[in-house]
């Protein structure tokens, strides 16, 4: 991908952003979890969370950002809370790294 391809992609992503939606019009959000890369990956790979949460970014060796569908957050936070892990929501209106961005991508192609 060239720099100009990346610029065009970013432009059309912004232009078509209104098309994003989750399964059954669910809202996506993101939250931060103090966790290792390995633990976050194994959490996301649990069958009940597949395609509902995923690792969006590794901000440090002990902090990951997880996008998620609204319905998955309570389950994840409960599970993490049982292990005394505190996760916090990020103030955004879209989970940019989640599967509900696919309609936006399709419109650009």
What order do the helices and strands come in, and which of them pair?
Elements: H1 3-15, E1 28-33, H2 37-44, E2 57-60, E3 63-69, H3 70-82, E4 88-90, H4 102-108
Antiparallel strand pairs: 1-3, 1-4, 2-3
Describe the structure.
With 109 residues, the protein is of the alpha+beta class. The chain has a domain at 24-98: Malonyl-CoA ACP transacylase, ACP-binding (Alpha-Beta Plaits, 2-Layer Sandwich), CATH 3.30.70.250. The protein is built from four helices and four strands; from the N terminus they run αβαββαβα. It has helices at 3-15, 37-44, 70-82, 102-108; strands spanning 28-33, 57-60, 63-69, 88-90. The chain has a four-stranded antiparallel β-sheet. A hairpin with a 2-residue loop joins β2 and β3 (63-69). The longest helix has 13 residues, at 3-15.
Beta-strand share of residues: 15-25%
Order of helices and strands: HEHEEHEH
Instruction: Look at the structure and give the CATH class of the domain at 24-98.
Output: Alpha Beta
Secondary structural class: alpha+beta
**Reported CATH architecture of the domain at 24-98:** 2-Layer Sandwich
Give me a quick take on this structure.
By secondary structure, the chain is α+β, with helices and mostly antiparallel strands. The protein is 38% helix and 18% strand. It has a domain at 24-98: 2-Layer Sandwich (Alpha-Beta Plaits).
Question: Which properties best describe this structure?
Answer:
109 residues; alpha+beta; Alpha-Beta Plaits; four-stranded antiparallel β-sheet; 38% helix
